[in-house]
Structures are given as structure tokens and as C-alpha cells.
Structures
1.
Amino acid sequence: MKRLSTLLLCFLLLPLLRADEGMWLPNLLKQLNEKDMQAMGMQMTAEDIYDINRASLKDAIVSFGGFCTASLISPEGLLLTNHHCGYSSIQSHSTMEHNYLEDGFWAGSFEQELPNPGLTATFLVRMEEVTQKVIAGLQAGMTAQERQSLIDKNIAAILKETPHEAYEEVEIKPYFKGLQYYLLVTVTYRDIRLVGTPPESIGKFGADTDNWVWPRHTGDFSLFRIYAGPDNLPADYSPNNQPYRPKKYLQISLDGIREGDFTLVFGYPARTNEYLPASGIKHILEVVDPVRVGMRDLSLAVMGAAMRRNPVVKLKYASKFAGIANGWKKWIGEMQGLKRVNAIGRKTQFELLFLEQLSANPDLQKAFGDILPRFKELYAELAPYEQSHQYYTEFTGRNVDLLRTAGLMRRLLKIYESSGQKGFDNFKQRLQPYLEKQYKNYLPQIDQKVFAALMQAYLEQVPDAHLPEGIKEKWTSEQMAGLSAELYQNSVLSSAESIDQLWRLSPKKLAKTLEADPAYQLFTRLAKAYEEKVQGDYQRIKSELEELQRRYLRGLITVFPKKHFYPDANGTLRVTYGQVKGYQPRDAVVFLPQTYLAGVMEKYKPGDYEFDVPEKLRQLYERKQYGPYGENKRLPVCFIGTNHTTGGNSGSPVLDARGHLIGLNFDRVWEGTMSDVFYDRSICRNIMVDIRYVLFIIEKYAEAENLVQEIRGGMADRD
Ligand code: ARG
Ligand code: GLU
């Protein structure tokens, strides 16, 4: 028994020790990863990647708007990110006459670059661990609340005493579920302009059909520029601002890639959950994902049909549809992947090992022995609340604009109740422009249909005990259709104009108007039922789970002291590294790691909304005019690797062994989207655009000579 388990231990831990899995802290590479990275072929040192004393690669990476990553590729602040990261900016500059989504956009000079209010680029200046100071004074018997309030107090004190420049920001974030804390010093630029984008038929080629799918042929890139004040520091938008002069920008390599090559992705992954117990994975697979997918099935069917019928709808709903479809498809892939690699079974096996280690040591047993059974109990208890919570969130918070607006208005009124006129004004100041932007892309006739479909599902699927009293009895399906029509006809929230009127009202009058509004009334009923019957228990169980998860992580680290653990993604800068590699998606099928322009042509469907190919690109293909970007008369388009990435890593630069830019991360393969909770090297792959395709499009397709000159200056010597 003993021998067997030791063997099993080695076997099970082996994949965990493989380099590809993990989102590593840039400041700890020296200590944890450098050797491994160099063994995999990296020719740099950890300091080349992250150094606080001299310019390093990290100075060429920014968090793009807080939701994506971008990198600097010229001495004049030119930023490379994904087309889908720039999407809403591009959309906001587009009209039916100047449709930059459809036709692309290339600024011929600095003056033609387009400002994007609200868009930011944030640099990490440095990070340091401050765990001891943050947890100072914590005691064993404290409640979660006491614990948190002490931590908040400590954090406030540390922030106050941390020296920093006036233009810098300081924050402290938890890592490892709060087992560690890091202080992050950042600088945020606020004048970010659109420089160039290919048409959607290149930048979003394959659209939702190909999203999350390999083989892929999307030129998913766009160009922006950071502008700074005269001192090269952050400044609000001004026509007098100057292109930012970076400390560091990336060198580009056109050498191309081969299977097995080292790849490094440097960016801002948002959120992962890699240390869930088997019961947590089961919860995602059986409770969370099915509800989300089911609700989105319904709303996507409505929106998609309308978009295909009408080009105005298509333009207005493009971004909303893409966002909703993106999560929907990812979760479908996640469920399939988790089943396929038997994630629950493998986690369970791993837990047996953990338990075995505990049973061999009474102290460990005492400290951690209750954790796994407790997880099981809590997830079982959570399930019904989670289900209603997910239904509620999808229905009122995500898919139906009218209800989401009602929710925001209710928040505004609550803020007035709790913090008076000042709080009201503050929130209103943010809410008003936000809603104005939202309603530019809002069509009541479509929202109404989405509402009707989701309301029906909501009433059918959510247990009576979690619904407002009597709500089910009230509506037959005919009455439901009547209700939706009436809501959208009579609600002040169903048009931009009538919302505009609302902003003139005093808080008291606003409350009165809203309380008489049918959509607001309905939302309030739903919200109150949710708050009274679901939210309390949901949050109580979730917070106990969080506590337990932290103890579990401490347990894992204690029981397996030799393993290198990486913290879950938390929206901070990370390094992931791996290699270019194909995979086997199904029995007897092998995917190669690189695609070519010929593959774009294979998918070409004239006039199709997803797979049309611009005429000029077809001509370039016919003539094989690839310049320095081709490889044996073929033009590389995308490639895949084993880098462990997630949402937020979009736009992350992909660097080769020497730190030169070879690609742009933008997606993962469908079979492997479960890497957010369970990374498996056999099928988890990230998808990247080849930098040669990016430059080819800029030079040969767009003929943006000014940009070619600017970027070419940054080209690495070709040795
Ligand atoms: N799947 C990628 C990501 O998660 C790309 C999404 C944008 N593209 C789209 N067709 N929706 O962000
Ligand atoms: N497209 C994703 C993003 O916007 C990256 C894909 C993923 O989730 O890995 O960040």
C-alpha cells in the first residue's frame, strides 16, 4: 500500500511540476522558474523580464483598459493589442457611413488618430510582498468579518506610508486566496488613441463560429497609441499631448516558429480557480455552467436571428452579441473538457493522496482533516442557491438591457438613501454617460423579445420558493407576451430619450417616477425576492467556501512542500511559458500548430457574415506577394502553444527564447477552456496570431507606410 501510494504520488505530481501549467509572478521568476525556463530553451535571464532598477520587458507591457493586455512596439508609444480588445472603441467611431468595423481604419498621421474617452493603459512599476504587515494582528478565533476589517485597516495603513510619486498609484492585492499579499505600484495613462485596425473580415474572421476554435485564421489585432503630457507623464486627453516615449518597447522577430520552440506570454490574466476540490469542479459542471449556457442559448437565438435579417441591428448588437456568445461558448467547451479528461476523477484521486498524507501525521490530520468533507457539504448546500443566483444574474444583470438599467437605477436610489445628495451625484455622474453609451446600441423591439424568452425560462426554472409571491400564477404565455409589450411601451427606461429626461429630476422625484414605472416595479419585485430568499444564504455559503479554500491551499502547500505553487489569476501581471505544440483533439485526429493564408481561403464563403474575405486579400493570396513575411511561399497566420492563459491575456505579446515579439495571444482552443479550473497539457492550448501576419496586413493589405516605417525601426536584427 505504502509503495503503491508513493508511486502514485510521483505520477500524479509529475504533471503538476511541468512548466507549461502556471501563471507566474514576474518578480519571483528568478527564484522559482528561471532554471526551468532556460532548460526549455529560454536565452534570457529573469532580470531581462522583470527588473525594477533598469528597463526590462515588463516596461513594454500594459493592462489595456483593465480588461485586456497590450504591448509597446515602437519608440513612439504604439500599442499592439487584439481587434476584439479594441472592438468597442472601433465600434464607437463607426457609423453606417464610416463603418470602421466593416472597412478597417488606418490613421495616416498622428492627427488622424482617434481619442477614446475612458480608455486607459496601466504599467506595473514594481511589486513587493507585504503579507506580514497585512496579516499583523490576525488571531485564530476571529470571524471572517473581524479578519477582513483588520486586514482592511492594515492595508490602509501600509498604503498611507508607502512612498510613491504623485502620478503613481498604489494598491494591495491578495494572492493565494489571501495567504499572501502584494503591493503594486502602477502608472495609468488616460489618453489612448486608435491608430489602426483591419476590417472585421480579417480581425474577426470566422467570428463566433471560429471563436475558441482551432484551426484558426483570424488576424485579431489592432493598434493604439499612448499619449502623454509634455513631461511624458499621464495626462487627460488634450490635442497638445505627445506620443508617449517608452522606457522599453518590444523587438520584433520575423524568424518564425517551429514546433517545440519556447514561448512566453506576458500579460494580465483575470481570474482562474485552479485549486478547487473535486466537489467544486462538480459544482461548475453540474450547476453553474448549465444555467448560464441555457439562458444564453435563448438570448443568442433572438439576437442572432435579428442580426442576420437587418444590417442596422447587426452593427448595433455586434459587440453585445459577441460578449454574450463568448462566455456561452467557453462554458460549453469547459463542460466538455472537464468530462473528457475526467477532471473530477483525477481531482478525487489527488485528494486521496492528500488524505493519505494527512492520515500519516496526526498534526496535519488535525489541522486539515475536516476540509474535504466540509467542501462536499457546502457545495451540496450551495447548489440550489447557486442555481437561482445564476438564473437571476443572467436574466436581470446580463442579457436584458431594460432590467439591467432598472437595477442600476435602483442602485442609484439606494445610494441616495445611504449617502445623500453627494453620493447620488457621484454615482449619477458615472451612470449617465455609461447609459448613454449603452443605449446607442439598444433596440427595444429586440430587447423585448429577449426579455420575454428569459422571463419565461426564469419562471419555469427557478423554484417557487425563490420567486416573488404569486408571480407565476399571474402570467400565462399570452399574458407574458402582453406584459413584455406593455413594459417596453410604457417604461421610461426603454428609450434613451426618456432616460435623458430622468436626469433632470431631483432624487425624490426620480424615485417617485421610477416607483410608478412598470419595468422598475417588476425588477424591484424580482430583486427583492432574490435578496430575501437567495442572496443571504448564497453569500454566507460562498464566504465559508472561500475561507475553506484558503485553508485547503495552506494544507496543499504544507503537505506537498516540494511543489511550486502559482497563485490563481487575479488581474495582475503574470508570465506563462510553454512551447509551440499541436494536439490531438479527438481519437485519430492530430492538429498541427500553425495555420496559413491558404486556410483562410479554404474557409472563404463569398458574402457570408463570418467567412467573407476582402478582395484585396484574395488578390494578395493569388499573387503570393508576401514579402519578408512569407515562409516557403506560404503566409503564416496563427499558431498554438501550451501557455496557460485565460481571459485578460488577450492582446498579450508572445515572446521567443530571446524575448522578441513573435505573436499576439487572443484565444484558447475549445477542448481546453477548462484550463481555468483544470489545466491539462494534452489538450490545453492558447491561440496566437503570428506577428508576420500582423505586419503583412499592415504593410501589404493596408499599405500603411507610416506605420511600417515606425514599426520597422523596432525590428530585431536578423542573425
Ligand atoms: N474567445 C476570445 C476571448 O475570450 C475572443 C472573443 C472575441 N471574439 C468573438 N468572436 N466573440 O476573448
Ligand atoms: N479572448 C480572451 C481574452 O479576451 C483570451 C482567451 C482566453 O480566455 O484565454 O482575454
2.
Amino acid sequence: MISNIVTMGGVKSLKDIDVTGKRVLIRVDFNVPMDAQFNISDDSRIRAALPTINYCIDHNACSITLVSHLGRPKGGYDERYTLRHIQKRLERLLQKKVEFIDDFEASKEEIASCSLERVFLLENIRFYAGEKKNDPEFCKQLAELCDVYVNDAFGTSHRKDASTYGIADFVETKVAGFLMMREIEAFTKALEKPIRPIALVVGGSKISSKITLLTSVMQKIDKLLIGGAMSNTFLQALGYEMKASLVEVDYVDVAKKVLEEAKANNVKVYLPVDVVITDSIENPIDVRVTPVQDVLEGFHAVDIGPATLKLFSEAIELSNTIIWNGPMGIYEISQFSKGTYKLATVIAESYAYSIVGGGDTADAVERAGEKEKFSFISTGGGASLELLEGKVLPGFEKLDRN
Ligand code: ADP
Ligand code: 3PG
Ligand code: MG
């Protein structure tokens, strides 16, 4: 059976068409993290869109209109989410003037006219009600701005919004940008044509949000390493008492089933043998390492311990492909971040093909300073999870096919 990932890879990309003299609209994902003063704390997503934008400039597209969302505004203009916050950074990275369009409906004629070499950046597309509703009339209005639609917003490709999905019904030529293609290639290499053994490392806060992933990849992987709060539920399922730790009690039976499925599919499962526990997450006074069978009353397991790191390291060093989704602990708090950061280093130093999906995991790898040594870090959080789950991402669905 041809997998959905391979099917998505069959879409036409920018290199298959001629953009010379064309008005190109590119849906990008500039939904970048910012601090309270609106400083961009990680511009990876902007950088990741540059090859597509530069290609259009270099191939003499007559105008380029960039469309993105930022955050989740609730109805209309909201100062916190204006894309003006990223205009300067984009200009610096492109080394080119970027014209900001407050309201594309008011500036429609200017954008739609062929004005050689101009780059427009539209205001946050989620300020318009039609975007999230995928309203056909709104899709049509956006479509009228261009001759060619390029979707390069991988991070938003799991959304059926007007600018990621519906617009394609109203544009004759619609293709994927280079980032979309890179993401698909990376996941194809990891999941469809892997060099075995292949290890899936999962963690993060909830088993419930990743259960589809666990069941859908079971037939494709050789090893399953489970850490983070996720592993608490598995450990509870094995009879350990996790005390005040985050455990999804409703999922204890599900965890048992996953372990049975793993066994049936010959997948080796690695669970923590020791954990870092704390008396309090907000105000930790007593933090210590303990075997999983000795979690103290009232304590929370918040990271994997050193023996677990050793166990996981050995499993990783003997793998040739590693897919990582979900931190090993509450990595945002430095006392509980060691397991995640050290694991990042172990994966980075391995010779395996290593791929990271998941917004927090990508952030943790960046903070660990190991980003450059990974084979691929996805720009998608939810999108990469859905891709790993084997779903067809709407952002690819309506694009032209080869
Ligand atoms: P990703 O965004 O990479 O998919 P998730 O969103 O699933 O990852 O999980 C990340 C979150 O999981 C982080 O906020 C982290 O603090 C939390 N987490 C990890 N381990 C634990 C734990 N033991 N207890 C509570 N929260 C945890
Ligand atoms: C993301 O950050 O995951 C994407 O930009 C999608 O954002 P959304 O979850 O608000 O649709
Ligand atoms: Mg997350």
C-alpha cells in the first residue's frame, strides 16, 4: 500500500512551474515565538521559508505576496498578533524591502497589478473571519491577488483554512514550496525508507495526544523509547506507583494495550528505570533521583534519571534512524531539563539519521545547542505529529500533482 506520506510527496513543487512574470502568492508559516516585548525568540520558521521566496525573486516573479497567521487572535485586529512584528526581520533576512499591507481588501488593485520585484506582506490573515471558516468568498478574494499559489506553510498544513486549503480551488496553478517538499522528504526517509533499526523516542505531557502516533507507527519501528509524563502512565500500567506525578488514569488500560501491541510487533520498549522527583514543581526544595519503584509520597516525577539516560543512550547508539517527538521532562525548568538536554546530545552525537517533530522538542533541541547536528528538525508541531500518524495533510490535498 502506498503511504500517505509518499502520496503527499507526489505534488508539484515550485521547481516544476515557471513563475517568470507571474503574480505569486506564498502561504508561509511566520507563526514565530516572541517575548513580551515582541522580540522574536526563534526565527527558524522565517529562515525556512527563504529558499522559496528567494527562488521567486530570482526567477523574476512579477510580484510576491506573503500570507501568514500569527498566534490565535479572536476576531479582528489585535496588536499582539500583528505581522508588523516580523516585517523588519524578514527584510533583514531577505535583504530586500518588504511592503506591509494593513488590509489587502483595500489594497487589492495595487497587489494584483503586476509590479516587478515587489514583495508584499499581508497583515495576519486570521484577523479576517473568513480565514478559519475557510469561507469560499474569502478564498476567492485571496485567489484574485495571484496567478500562482504556493503553499510553503508546513507548520499550518494540518489546518483546513482559507489560505492553506480553500484558496487552491480558485487558482489555476497551485504548488508546494521547497520547505513543504523538504519536510516530506525528511519524513519519507525516516519512516518509509529508513535504514534500520529505527527508534521512536516519545515523551511530552500526554499519552492521550500521542496515542494515534503510537498505534500507527508500531508496524514500522524496531524500538520505542518512552519518557516524559507519558512514561508515568506506562509505569503506572506496569504496577509502579507514581504518586503525585502527572498520570492519565483514563489511559492506563490504553498504555497496557500499547505494550501488548509492541510485543506482538516485535518492538522493543524502553521505559525509565529511574526518575528525577521533586516535592514541588513551582517551588522545588527537595529534588532527588530515585528508582521508579521508590517514588516518594507527594512527589512528582519530572525528568528521566541518569540510569535511564544510559539505557536510552545504548538503545540510540545501536539505531540507524531516530525519530524524536516529546521532551523527557519539564525541560522549561532548568532543574528538570537535564534528561532532555543530555538525550539531545546523545542523539546529535550518534551516526543515525535523526529527525525531530514537535514544537517543544524542537525548542528543547535548540536550547540544548544541538540543532545543527540533527539531520532534520521539522518546522511543524501539530503538523509533524499528524504526518507521523499517517494522515493526509490538507495543505497538500488540493495542490497540482505530477
Ligand atoms: P511537543 O510539542 O514536542 O510535541 P508536547 O507538547 O507533547 O511536546 O510535550 C511537551 C510538554 O511536556 C512540556 O511542556 C513539558 O514540560 C511537558 N512534560 C514533559 N515531561 C513531563 C513530566 N514528567 N511532568 C509534567 N510535564 C511534563
Ligand atoms: C503552529 O505553530 O503549530 C502552527 O503555526 C499552527 O498554528 P495553530 O495551531 O494556531 O493552527
Ligand atoms: Mg507541545
3.
Amino acid sequence: MTDFELVEKINKLKKEKNAIILAHCYQNPEIDEVADYVGDSLGLSRLASKTDAEIIVFAGVYFMAETAKILSPNKKVLLPNRNSGCNMADMINLKQVREFKEKNPGVPLVCYVNSSAEVKAECDICCTSANAVDIVKSLGEKKVLFAPDCYLGSFVAKSLPDIEIISYPGFCPTHLRIIPDEIVKMKIMYKDAKILVHPECHQEVVKLADFTGSTTQIMQYCANSNAKSFIIATEKGVVDRLRRDFPDKEFILASDKLVCHNMKWNTLEDIYNSLLYGQYEVDVEEKIRLKALKSIQRMIEAK
Ligand code: 13P
Ligand code: SF4
């Protein structure tokens, strides 16, 4: 089947089955042709908690689909391709999060949504890259544990110097592929370009940024800025979308290595099969779901 035929069939199946397709902006750009919403982890979580659809097809990685299931237990949540995991989320399991807490008794734990349901169930509140600073601040504590991303943890610590952040040593292999030298070289070539960085990058890269934010925040910055060119230090999918949405502006990917292969597994054919055969259903044990739900809801409701 051609992509055009697949898009038609997917849209027909979506209506017949009362399904919604949520896509992260790191997905292959053709996925946008069938997506009802494209955004960052925070926007996608909010939408998953509100939709009336009976089926949510999550074009993203496993922890995102799992978060949707935690928020919408009565809906069928489908991950189109079984391989879509997240290396960072896999760096911390139940035993490791418990040990992290035991080493720091009485200190509240903020958990990045890039983690499993079991890990979320152990924390006090979740956060995404879009709201990590606000969430940590909202606790009003002097000391906070942060897991699993130590680089997002460093970004929060830098933004909130009065709070001691103790980070778990997890990281995103994709974002760590950007090295400061590459950005410096780019800046020499594109003197007027703004440097926009995802907070999962190394602090030395974040230091060079004109703006640091989530994928959606980076896209909003480009939409609102008068600048004409931008060096983008996050996954390639963001640059693909920016080039399509703002053809008069110039977007330079900070490094060719900025591809998250986990995110790129999902194809239009996978989405079609997902809707047709109801595969691959994501489920969360009820006891864990209820505990994880508290942490996610606390985040969604936080100001
Ligand atoms: P956002 O929070 O910007 O959606 O990013 C999620 C992610 O996985 C980044 O690597
Ligand atoms: Fe996980 Fe990194 Fe891929 Fe985001 S970019 S999904 S943190 S591996």
C-alpha cells in the first residue's frame, strides 16, 4: 500500500473505531498525516487524560503509552510497534528507585515521566521537561531527589539555586551525542542563529543555549521569534516539523547523530495494523496504576 492509501484507511478506521492518534514530535513526519495531536510529553499526557475516544493509539515510546493507560484505564491504549522503548526509562527499575530513596530518607522524589509505571508509583510527583523547574519549586522543599535524568536534574538545580537536587545517574543517549564543540562550530557558520537546546543535553551544551525547553517549547520559541535561523539541539523530528511549518526560516540540526531510533520504529503501516488488529495493547497492574496516577495527577494539577 502507498502512504496515501494507508492514510485514507487509517482515517477511516479511526472513525469506525472511535480512536484517537497521539504522536510525539520525534516521530517520523508522515505520522502527522494521521495524528489528531502532535506535541511534547506534557501536552500528550494532558490530552490522554481528557479524550472521549475509546481507543488511544500512541505513536511514541512505551512510557508515553503507559502514561496514557494510567490516566485512562477504561480505554484501550495501543503502541503500534513493540520495539519503541526509551533507553533512559530503562535505566531505573523498581529496586533501583527504592535504593535511591532509602539512601536519602525523608527527601521527596520527583520523577521525570520518562520512566516506568512502577517507578512513577514510587515517587511523590512526576514532571516533564516542560515543567520540571516549576514542579520542583512547587514542593517548597530545600532538598529534592530527581530521577532518572541527571542532566534534566542539573538544569533544574541551575534554575533553582536555593534547592539541593540529588539526581539519579540516568541519561538520554541521543541527547548526549551533542558535544559543545559542534554547537560552537555551528555558531561560527551561522552567526545570527539562536541556539535552542533540550534540557536532556549535557550542561556544557545547555550553557551555550539562548533558550532551553521541551520540544513543544522549542517549537513555540521558533514560531514567536523574529530571528531567521536556529540551531536546534534536540531530536531530528523537531527540525523536520519546523522546516515544514516555517519554510521562510532556517533550521540547523546541531548534530546528524540526533536521531532517537526508539522513536523512529513506528510506521504508517504499524499504525494501520494497530487499529485493524488492536495491537499492541498496553496494560498496567491496577495497584501500580493507582499509585502512579497520583504522581501524574499531582503534576497535571500543579500550577
Ligand atoms: P519532551 O518532554 O520535550 O516531550 O521530550 C520527551 C523526550 O523523550 C525527550 O527525549
Ligand atoms: Fe528516551 Fe532519549 Fe529517545 Fe527521548 S530521545 S525517547 S529520552 S531515548
